[in-house]
Amino acid sequence: MIYLQLFLAFLQIGAFSFGGGYAAMPLIQAQVIDRYGWLTVADFTDLITISQMTPGPIAINSATFVGNQIAGIPGALVATLGCILPSCLFVTALAWIYVKYRNLTVLQGTLEALRPAVVAMIATAGITILLPAFFASGAISFAAGNFQLRPVLYFIGALVLLRKWKLDPVLVMVLCGVCEVGYQFIFR
Asked: Is Kinase included in the keywords of this UniProt record (predicted)?
């Protein structure tokens, strides 16, 4: 019975969490804390932390974590399957529709119209991440102690390494991490 509950709970989360992992968090909280009582609020905070630290989408990491906490490895598999199944079905249906109707002018026009919107969404997400990294308050303000120069220098250095020298992004992240560890070791 617990496997069915895990599957159905995360099937709902996977089907209705439009907008990415952070948009899924209220749905996950409603299922695992409010509805089933599988986790406490403190456990849910740990869930968010672990889901952000591990590679992969937050919703899938959360499903795996909750499933493992509740029913071990089989629970993790069932919850993860429930979370990814709606997306797999939706993308498969979209791919079929695209292959069948890709030459239609309406479809091509729709895809052309979506490209600038996707770029705007990615830019908005980037700015949302950069503001708290550059400014301690999270808002643009050059008040004393609010502007953080080190992250700006890392950003500019990473941008140069990625665009001018075309270094691998993973290597650039490692280099930034090494620089920060070195800074912390030397100056703290």
From this structure: no
For tokens 């609020």, the residue is: 41
Alpha-carbon 99 to chain mean position: 28
Nearest-angstrom CA–CA distance, 95 and 101: 10
Give tens-digit pLDDT for 107-121: 888 889 888 988 888
pLDDT in tens, 124-156: 878 888 888 899 888 888 888 899 999 999 999
Are 40 and 55 in contact by the 8 Å Cβ rule? The answer is: no
The torsion angle over the Cα atoms of residues 77, 79, 82 and 87, rounded to 10 degrees, is -80
What dihedral do alpha carbons 8, 12, 13, 15 form, nearest 10°?
130
How far is it, in rounded angstroms, from Cα 78 to Cα 84? 10
The length of the chain is: 188
Closest CA to 122 of 9, 31, 20: 20
Does pLDDT of 56 surpass 90? no
